[in-house]
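re: ur question from earlier - yeah i can do the single chain one, its not a big deal. heres the input i used so u can compare w yours
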Amino acid sequence: MDISRVFWESIKTIWSAPKEIRQLLDNLRTELYGERAYFKNAIKQARSKSRNSTRDSPDIAPLSILNDSIKSMTRDFWEMEAPFLDDAEGIKDLDIEKNGEISLRGKYAHMDFRRRYIWLQTKADFMELANQVTRIQARRIAYETSNTLT
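and the output i got, formated as tokens:
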């Protein structure tokens, strides 16, 4: 890749950071929380249907593994999102299981140059996290399909 193209892509990323941050982070948050809510309910239903309700039972094990992955991704998301949140709001524990209903829109700080530069450095990490969530969603759909057919 030629250096002038890298330079202009970096400038474009810094310039469009406020819009990109809000869109990508809000979408990621919505997808992560939606998956967490799904797995919480699916595990609850699988336990109520199964006599053997241990974590290692064949009905619950795949859901538990995917749920643990989503929880880990959510923690990673909170850490990555922290520099972009409004400092006056502070970082709140947005755990669905503890707080019940929450707002899915983040309260983002004004995008000064420091935050735009952080975005330039971390945008690829957010995109990778979004790809991981998409893979989890595909596995969830495959699990639902295989359980529906049996």
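The helical segments are 3-15, 17-49, 61-81, 96-99, 113-149. not sure if urs matches, ping me
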